[in-house]
Predict the structure.
Amino acid sequence: MRGDHRTVSVGDSQLASPPFRVLLLAPLSGASGIWGPSALHAAKVAVGQINQTGGVGGRPVELIAVDAGQSPDQVAKTLARVLSDQHPNAVVGLHSSDLKPSVVAALGGALPYVFTPLHEGEETARGVFTIGELPDQYIYPAIDWLMRERGVTAWSLFGSDFVGPRTCNRAARRYLEGKGAQVLDEAYFPVGASDYTAALERLAASSADCVLLSLLGDEAVYFNRAFAEFGLADRIVRLTFAVEENMLLAIGDEASQDLFAAAGYFASTPTPENAAFLKAYYDLGGPNAPPPNSLGESCYEGLHFLQALVRAAGATDLDRLVEAAASGVTYSGARGALFHRHNRSTMPAYLATARGGAFEIVARL
């Protein structure tokens, strides 16, 4: 078996064969590879729970993990081979938005595709179910809180150079300017960039009091470390939507002053469902399990959504699944009960601040 995908078995199941095979697209290498271990571990937790509660359509779930940290062309080739050789029944995807068109094209509308992370809300392809946070659920209320509580009015927008960060920053700019705030700078960096000197020099010379970051994976780690080295952490607030607990550990506590993150989930989320999720997470992985975080937990939710969707449809046929999603599907995650309809999930979102190497929630958005 090639190193770009692997089959993962989780626990024992008394359910009838054949298995319901779920292709999990998650970054296991590259700039976003820091997300991979938590995503795969959270998915294993979900599979264990699903197989103890009837599986998907009465069939035990089997994971096929595919590395989504490669280039879109490489992922498309791997995906085509796995679709032909492994015959999965569904796809759950955690990856950057620039990869989504390649996945949609490879699937050809033949399989359900659950896209789990925050997204731009512009997906119309048949059979794609986007369950993550939308801009009005996390970007706008986070901006409101920082403007109200921290008095920030002059912003710089920095992001990785692909469709997701550009779309989010476009929405943020429109919202900020509608609130009377200034946007002083907007810049994008190639995927894999590690030198942000020019942008930080402009930032240091400006009157910006907040920077909105849409940098992914290692790029966010490099930027935030350099940001602190430039001496900016004590005078400019940072707001990010893609820094999670793994990345925060890599950034380091000394470089995390006034770093805020908005997300639908943090390891510190105060719900009974999260306490149960964390217990199952560490029961499976022990004390050395990868840190739980919003992106990993989205894979946990994605698999539970898939189980609930099939139950609501009473079938695994894609047409029936699309009809069920249009009517609305209730499912559960570490945040509690969630409801999905027309590619929008009703869910809580939170704003947290970095403190002591972890995220401490300061507001429910």
